[in-house]
Write a structure and sequence with these properties.
By secondary structure, this protein is an all-alpha fold. It has a domain of 34 residues. 52% of the residues lie in helices and 0% in strands. It is built from two helices and no strands. The termini are far apart.
């Protein structure tokens, strides 16, 4: 295991070339992937909500139907 005594010399070395963590330079791709996933999640959620609302609309509940679900308690 190598030890580093001077970080400035280490980071300016030709082998390192300023790379402090793996995947340097791929941030744009990761942001693009995250954006696509975020938009996809919204599309899927909207589709599921629309399907649920359409299912409820087909039942044609009336304005007073909730009264039959209330207990006399």
């Amino acid at each position: 295991m190598a030890t580093v005594s001077n970080w400035i010399d280490h980071l300016s070395a030709k082998e390192v070339a300023g790379a402090v963590y793996p995947g340097v330079g791929s941030e744009g791709i990761l942001v693009l992937i995250a954006f696509v996933l975020w938009i996809g999640w919204h599309v899927i959620s909207a589709k599921q909500e629309n399907d649920k609302l359409e299912k409820l609309a087909r039942k044609r509940h009336g304005a007073n139907d909730w009264k039959s679900n209330v207990t006399d308690g």
